[in-house]
Amino acid sequence: MSLAADPLKTGAERLFFRKRLIGFSIPLIILIYLAQLFFAFDIAGLAQRANWENGRTLVADSYSYKTQVMRDNRTGEVSVAVEGERHGRYPDGTAPDWVHLGAVTTIDLPYGHQVQFLPDGLRYDIPGYGTITASPGSQGVQAVLPDGPVPDFINASKNRLTVTTKAGRLTVTRARSEVFRYAMGWELFFFTLDSPYSGMSPQAVLSRALSGEAGAIWHDFWTNKLWRHGDVAWALAETLLMAFLGTMGAGIVALPLAFLAARNFAPLGPLRFAMRRMFDFFRGVDALIWTIVLARAFGPGPLTGALAILITDTGSFGKLFSEALENVDEKQIEGVQSTGAKPVQRYRFGVIPQITPVLISQVLYFLESNTRSATIIGAITGGGIGLLLTQAIITQKDWEEVTYYIILIILMVVVMDWISGMLRRRLISGGEGGH
Amino acid sequence: MVQSVRDVQASYMALVRRRRSYSAILLALFVVLMVSGFRTANDRNAGGFFDGLHRLFDFPAEVLAEASEKAANLPGHLVTFFPALLETVNIAIAATLIGALAGGLLSLLSTRGLSPWPWAVPIFRRMADILRAIPDVVIALVLIFILGGGPVPAMIAIALHSTGALGKMFSEVNENVSLKPVEGLQSVGAGWIQQMMLGVVPQVAPNYLSYALLRVEINIRASAILGFVGAGGIGYELKNAISWGQGRYDDAAAIFLLLFLTIVAVDQLSGHLRHRLTHGTAKGMLA
Q1: What is the Cα Rg of chain B in Å?
Q2: Is residue A157 one of the residues assigned to a domain?
């Protein structure tokens, strides 16, 4: 009895041992692979290469903005501009309520800090520390600090004085003195300063809109020179257009070709083989290379992006559709044929209804994923929201715009995902046609 | 009697006609959308479709001509760019690995019945949706600004996107899991991690693996594109070779070839493995 059970036991033990071996070796292999990458990607050196200052500016800029008050030390002219940009400049003689223009310009900063531009210099009162004065001129900035050791937040040299506090920043050089005050939010998001509606409360704008100024208000908003809402809307439309044209075009082109690649519809072996290799080629070359090749012929823009998506997806759709066609039930076609249907009618009523669920669900699924691809292709070819995003990132200062574009992109993709999911459920009542 | 049959037929035909006219309207709308869409895209493009059509093959022809002229250099170039290709593939595999691990966890947390905190299921779902919605190029570009160029920003960007995408797909798999093993484990006092590792993961592993393989395929393409926008690897080399213009087209041809072969090879390999996982023999199930 025990003799008969023995080989069974050893067999089971061997099986357990093998399972245990696999159970331990898979995590080990993953771990070794990741450890190998740690050196291949030089992750240890990353800490030095990383620029955390950049990261801090980026994060701060994405939810706050700064207003710059600048005095030209030679002419004595004072100008106030949001983010220091031309389009954000206050008209001459006007300023936000914390700047008092005059012979002596007084700038109130939070926490009781105050900067004054005097005729022959400037002073900065820091509560709890003291008063810094400077008289910039041909001898340098001539900064005078309170007695005692120079704290970290002050950086003073002969030709430059920088004071960075929680209330704002002061920079003085020979040529100019600048004060930055930070505020939460996105500056001038709705109206730039040259618009009469700038700084109005939402209720006031709404009441103006109701009293017949809606057109003018919309115009000022739409042509906002800092945020360019009109251009951004066009860019989003271009991206969606690329995705739509590319996906639908690919579906239209791939459907007839798929018949030529399906075993049960194309009796000619070599033709089938050629079609399949063509699909593989279109897919294998990848959207990146198609984009480069097409951009050479058509230049940058949405058409190039749409065609790149169209070609790549013709390959994907061709493969998927031809697989769906091979799984078609012959009985329905025979049934239609038995009523005396001609070949075209046979396809129309015997085949197409069978593959429609797969067709629609795949096309809608690709439409959603291509919205994302169109953004990426736009970054390469220069079209749509992808282009705006890369431009904003390259300037390295408009991080609030980058944040705005990222939010818009996420919203766009989420909405497309939602629409595509809803249509899929609505159009394909019953089960999903496979993955 | 005869009258009523005729009635039925008439109303049936009316129904058919109405359906047909709806279809015709939809079709017309679609055609109008396509045509006007192409016209708009054409107008907003730098060069028009018909102006550029005859130039379509100029660039490939140029590249091919130069490559065939310097065909002797090709093997050398293939060797030169192989490390860059390896980097691109490594980015994709590492990102998929991280994405699959994180996505697996996220999917378990966002499946009703498996999550240890059922009230947090919608939060984890939205998290996966948002991670999936952000195109990887966005994260990569921002990270390049902070971390500098190189493979790490691309890896993080693709891993985040993969986490969302795989999290969603995995949670669909989780919906069909049998809860009996989980309940069994629970009754003998297993913790949540033990319940998941021993009760759920063995059930879903083949499907998880199949989706992860599909992701590797997608991520290799993504990794090449991210290289092109500055994140290292073969895409970066391609951008350099192309911006050099004529004279370096043999490099470009070698990179095209490497990229093409890799994508096709990974496609075929993952397709084959996935086929075995889903339709395979009982042996195909991983132990």
Answers
A1: 26
A2: yes
